[in-house]
Amino acid sequence: MSEQVQVRITGMVMTNRYGTLDSGDMLRTDAAFAKHLVEECDAAEYIKVDAPAAAPMVEKSAAKPASKKAKQERPAENPESKVVEESAQKTTE
Predict the structure, then answer these.
(1) How far is residue 7's CA from residue 13's CA, in Å, rounded to a whole number?
(2) CA dist list (Å): 47 to 7, 24, 27, 62, 91
(3) Measured between alpha carbons, how far is 60 from 73 in angstroms, rounded to an integer?
(4) Average pLDDT of the segment spanning 29-54
(5) Sign of the C-alpha dihedral, residues 32, 38, 39, 40?
(6) Per-residue pLDDT for 82 more than 50?
């Protein structure tokens, strides 16, 4: 088994092996692929790891933008607020 190292992604990277990685993601992978990301692509930096891990790992960064669908959805209207508005209009007429 090859040596596993951990890197922090510093820009957007699209890989066949791990999919799309974003800035801030942590990736545990083999030394050759890590070297490729750090030295050839200039898209990652090595991080010191205390204990070696057996399996590859990808940690996605926590902050992700909301989806377009979520931005387009509006909160449901409160029926009580309509009643208050209608009663206010009736009293002013």
Answers:
(1) 13
(2) 5, 12, 10, 18, 68
(3) 25
(4) 87
(5) positive
(6) no
Stretch 34-61: mean pLDDT: 80
pTM score over 0.70? no
3-class DSSP state of 92:
helix
Are 26 and 8 in contact by the 8 Å Cβ rule? The answer is yes
CB 12 within 8 A of CB 23: yes
Ramachandran bin of 24, using left for φ above 0, alpha for ψ from -120 to 50, beta for the remaining angles? left
Give me the residue label for tokens 């699209």.
Answer: 14
- DSSP-derived secondary structure for 41-87: S--EEEE--SS--SS-EEE--S--PPPHHHHH--PPP-HHHHHHHHH
Measured distance CA(89)–CA(87) in Å, rounded: 5
d(CA 80, CA 70): 25
The answer to whether residue 4 scores a pLDDT higher than 60 is: yes
